[in-house]
Amino acid sequence: MNRPDDTHESTTCPGCRAVLPRSEWPGDAKYNASAECLEVAGELLGYEVEHAAQLGYLHQLRIDAYGAQHVTPDAPRIGRVFALNGLYMYLERGSGNLDVRTAHGIMANSYDDWPAMTPPEQVGRLTAYDVLLADDVESALISWAREVWESWPPEDQEIIRKLTIELVPEKYFRR
User: Fold this and answer.
1) What is this structure's pTM?
2) Contact 13, 127 (CB under 8 A)
3) FRET label pair with 159: which of 24, 30, 76, 108, CA 20 to 30 Å apart?
4) How far apart, in whole angstroms, are the C-alpha atoms of residue 127 and residue 125?
């Protein structure tokens, strides 16, 4: 996928606001994302797989950044909690892929009163498209995830911190 220009039709993703060239990619009601943005997410996954030795440790972070940036207001609350939990665990606690996935399993099996959190008007400036086009994809992905996490209101971040610390054993935190 190339950057849109004046000669091609484009569309704006409702979740991340990326302006992307039109695509035939099928949409998915699970995310607040355009079909074109879902295509970018697929291309970013492909890039990650091709560069697994370098980027594999960021797999869950990529999933959570995209999920937290493309929350549908009417989606089950657990999805946004898990996405934000993954961002928190990586960015603030130094946890990796397995730690975060284990935490999601522990949380899902021990809690069911997920807090209501409304996504901010804009969830970060960077998008999966920016990451895909970056010269240094690794750094761009981490910056994107940090922007997404920091764009959520402080009170929502605090809810995630407290819920995670309450439910997830400390051994899954690396710092």
Assistant:
1) 0.92
2) yes
3) 30
4) 7
Domain ranges of the chain: 56-172
pLDDT in tens, 34-86: 999 999 999 999 999 999 999 999 999 999 999 999 998 788 999 999 999 99
Contacts of 120 (CB under 8 A, 6+ apart): 151, 152, 153
What is d(CA 96, CA 81) in angstroms, rounded to the nearest whole number? 17
Q: 100-125 pLDDT, tens per residue?
A: 999 999 999 999 999 999 999 999 99
Q: Characterise 50 by phi-psi region: left (phi > 0), alpha (psi -120 to 50), beta (else).
A: alpha
How far, in Å, CA of 92 to CA of 29, rounded? 30
Helix (H, G, I), strand (E, B) or coil at 70: coil
